[in-house]
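Deliverable D5.2: sample structural annotation.
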Amino acid sequence: MTTTTTTTIHAASASTSARAGAIGGLIAAATFIFGIALFVTSLSDYIDATPAESVEFLVGHQSTLFAWYLVIFLVFGVAIIPLARALHHRLADVSPQLADIGAVFAYIWAGLMFATGMVSNIGITAVADLDETDPAAAEALWSSVDAVTEGLGGGNELVGGMWILLVSLAAWGTGRLPKGLNVLGIVSSLAGLVTLVPGLSDVGMIFGLGSIAWFAWTGIVLLRRPELTAPAADVAR
């Protein structure tokens, strides 16, 4: 009786974790879509601008930038925490070392996203205020904030790429995640790791687009198959 009750509680906990992770995955995908859409439309003049042009744009579009940073960094950071927990729960018994290390990278990524988002939103306010009295100092401050945020979360995709890669490798051949999803994760994560090479940061767009599909697909799998174990043929459907 005790064993049956414990098993039932464990299954219920796994199901709840999977559903929370599914919601996190779908939200994470949505934040990427929002970020890329705004990046190529409303914020196109902000990208690759000179410090003076960036400060001028920032002063006139504070609300847009605030919303952009809030969603792509802070909301995204919150979303990946339950997703990371659900994936660790799903894979820990079949690939314990990879699952454990992957979860560490996921939580580090979440922390970096929080730091980047908070620095960015505090930074744009400080730059806008300083521009009223000292435009040259505002440009210098913007350059400093930009360097910090690029280093924390925008300049390369090492941490996120490592998490997705480790999850994909941990799930490989186990039937816990579809094989196609694992292939997508490996390809996307390698594109993210390539951003470490100077001059190849634009490859990050491949990581971004691949991550949208990976987050959404992972969310759907966790939503449809919340149990920890499932035959590979069933998971792939």
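Annotation notes: Residues 2-40 form the longest helix (39 residues). The chain is about 80% helix and 0% strand.
The annotation will be released with the project's public dataset once the embargo ends.
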